[in-house]
Amino acid sequence: MTSLMEAAFYVAAVVAIVSTMLAITRLVAVHALLYLIVSLLAVAVDFYTMGAPLVAALEVIVYAGAIVVLFVFVVMMLNLGAQARDRERQWLSGKIWIGAAILSAILLAEVIYLIVRAGNVGSISGVVGPKQVAIALYGPYLIGVELVSMLLLGALVGASHLGRPAPKKTEAR
Amino acid sequence: MLGLLWLVPAIPFASALALAVLRFPRRVVAWIGVSSITVSSVVSLLVTFSFLHTPPSAISYTQVLWTWLDVGGFRPEIALYLDPLSLIMVVVVAFVSLLIHVYSTEFMIGDDGYARFFAYMNLFVASMLVLLLADNLLLLYLGWEGVGLCSYLLIGFRYRDPENGRAGRKAFIVTRVGDTALMIGLFLLYRNLGTLNIQELMQRASQHWHTGSGVAIAAALLLLGGAVGKSAQLPLQTWLPDAMAGPTPVSALIHAATMVTAGVYLIARTHVLYSLAPPAQFAVVVIGAATLLIAGFSALTQWDLKRVLAYSTISQVGYMFLALGVGAWPAAIFHFMTHAFFKALLFLGAGIVIKSLNDEHNIFRMGGLRRQLPVAFWTFLIAGCSLAGLPLITAGAFSKDWIVWGAWSAANGSGGLWIVAIVGVLLTSLYTFRMIFLVFFGEAHTQAVKKPGYAMLAPCVVLALLSIASGYLKTPFARFLETVLPWNTAGVHAAPITEITSEVIAALVFLLGAYLSYAFFLRRRAYATRLTSSTVGGVLHRFWFSDWGMDWLYDRTLVRPLVWLARIDKDDCIDGFYTGVARVNEIAWRVLRRTETGRLRWYAAGIAAGTIVFIAVVLFL
Amino acid sequence: MMSSIPMGHGLILAGILFALGLAGLLMRRNLVFILISIEIMLNGAGVAFVAAGSRWSQPDGQIVFLFILATAAAEVSIALALLVRFYHQHSTLDADAASGMRG
Question: Closest Cα partner for B246 from B121, B141, B95?
């Protein structure tokens, strides 16, 4: 049983990584979003195998289900056409991605080095169920919950303000 | 009453401060400026009465205000010292300043910086009074520098014209040479005698130094250097003619009556030192004699009215130096007093003439003004006669005759000096009457447009009366000064000339000079022009006109090499260091500027790179 | 169920996801892709928290992930609103078009 879980973990991890790599190299925004959804789903599986079923569900529901959907709506609204794809191809070529790749690779190498250096720090054991999480949320982390709600309120107000139609006169550039 | 002494310099100083800092309308400025000097003069009079009525012990009064410094045993105080010498000079300075301030309320009415003018003038009077009342040489030096500063500020008063600024700078720099000599002299005196308090200094000098000792000579010569600079004597006299670029009241106050006599005061104050250093006193004589002749010749050739008077001032101060040098100390001070009156009057009169002819300075373009400016004419004539030495009536005759007699008979006098003095009288008479005849007689080349008001005429009248009356004060004057400046009748050698003979000869010479100018400048101008256009005459004329070539000499030997040096040293290594620092900053800026691209991804990359570096630092260090 | 996935592996996964998101951020010029890359990075950070929380069998990791989720939601909504505004103003989605702060 456990080995199945482990295998699921590693397979889902590979899927997540590959789909993320694909997501960042697409030319059409919607394609990238779809690959992103795949990546998020794979990460959700990873969460489940790590013994965190609640966040696995939340990942799917909130992240893939709301946030990415929001992205999709906006991208559809922008209605970027074929010339956008050509432009992307133009922008993506060149040595710009070599520099980016090198930077990320170095950072990744450092992080991996740190982790490996620490050695065996333990392994994931046991499931932390939704009940435990809920009790902790409404116990010690109550303030966090309230703050998050205020944050979301702020985002709501901000988004609605920014979403108003722009004034007809030209704004200061 | 004597306790009010500190008010005499303090009130003009306070008024200068007020005028400089606060803003008042013009009438208030005039009131403040004049009334501060008035109060100062009144207080000085009260002090005089008190001093004469109940003379304090040792015929001197010291008022200590506070201690200036207290460093390692060096303890100069802000203290005022009153004795007959300083009393006379303070009273003269205060009153002449008062009259000139009244005059300038009307003279300067058209100028922009009215308040600035009175602030500077009051500051000048305050500094001069501090100089005269100082009880130690350091405080005297403070007043010395103060009058130098105000002289610079006032000469370059109309600063928008760069010529005035140049004249101010020239005055300041040339007197600075003298000031440096004075400062070195102060250092020398302190180092050898341990004090700068004048009375103590004189005492210790006569105790520790024997007559003719090297230190005494050095100190006396250095003080002489300072006096020569401030009083515009040879070789530092070149600044005074150019200083006529300043407004006429400035010339009257500073460069005729007060500042230029600061050197005379200094030498008179420290006369004990000069008695201990006969070579230095001889130097004083030589300088005085040479200057009075050189300036006299130069005055003969000038066409600018104020420059004639400037050279005349140099020449008359030369007379004072001559008197100091031969040991006739009170004669020098008496001449200072009469000179203050008639020279200030001459300048004020010149100012009236210049203003009414709309800023015409050239005497050859004036003429016939005695009918158009009667009051100015009569006062100018009285002053001119006083300057030249009209006997028995004018004060100038009394003081000059005293000096001429002293040149023969005093301790260091000799026949040669007497002849020099007499020649000086001839020259004075010549250039004075030349000036008077050309300006006030003859046909009028320019019409007088503006007539002076009461504020300008009243001081002239008062000064004219003083130019006549003050001469009769000679004997009480000498007696008053006896405690401070002894008139040494013991070393008098009279034969073969007596005092009366000397005076008669001087009077005859005066008349000769008057007649010669009449002949050359009034009756037949052609004689004068023929003289100047002849070869010898022309050369002499140009030579004397240019102040015996001294300006040219200084320019070639001092100014040009220094300017050349400064120019080639413009970019030396020290400058290079500072410009280098600026360049490095500039390069750094240029490099760093490239990092501010305004692009989002560039900044994100920067953050990532920074994170990498920090983690690496944590990992590996 | 007892799984013995070492926490290190979970963290490495998080690191890789984060690095990929960073690479996407630096590489892409289109603003939409930049925002997507930011989401990837946030997700990666979340994985790290959950892995650590599970190792200690405590809910704290999941709670933090919850907060990250909420933050990401808030940020996305504002970012997309700004994106739309940006598009209206500059008529392009080029991130380099907004370089008015260039020194």
Answer: B121
Task: Report the DSSP pairing between strands B77-82 and B61-67.
Answer: antiparallel
Contact call for B601 and C25, based on CB within 8 A: yes
Closest-CA residue of C relative to A136 is: C59
User: What CA–CA distance (Å, rounded) separates B29 from B23?
Assistant: 9
Cβ neighbors of B278 (< 8 A, separation 6 or more) are: B211, B212, B412
Report how far residue B372's alpha carbon sits from residue B501's, in angstroms, rounded to the nearest whole number: 40
* Alpha helices, DSSP H, located in B6-83: 7-21, 26-53
pTM for the full predicted model: 0.72
**CB-based contact B608 C22, cutoff 8 Å:** yes
Q: Which two tokens stand for residue A2?
A: 């456990």
In Å, how far is B609's CA from the nearest CA of chain A?
7
Residues of A in contact with B608 (CB under 8 A): 103-104, 107
* Residue to test with chain C: of A10, A18, A20, A49, most C Cβ within 10 A: A20
Query: Quick one: A18 exposed, middle or buried, by C-beta within 10 A (0-12, 13-18, 19+)?
Result: middle
Could you give the ipTM of this predicted complex? 0.91
pLDDT 10s digits, C37-75: 999 999 999 999 999 999 888 999 999 999 999 999 999
d(CA B107, CA B453): 9
Chain A nearest-CA residue for C15: A108
Interface B:C, Cβ pairs < 8 A: 32
What digits encode the pLDDT tens for the residues B529-557? 777 777 777 888 888 888 888 888 888 88
Local structure of residue B66 (DSSP, 8 states): E
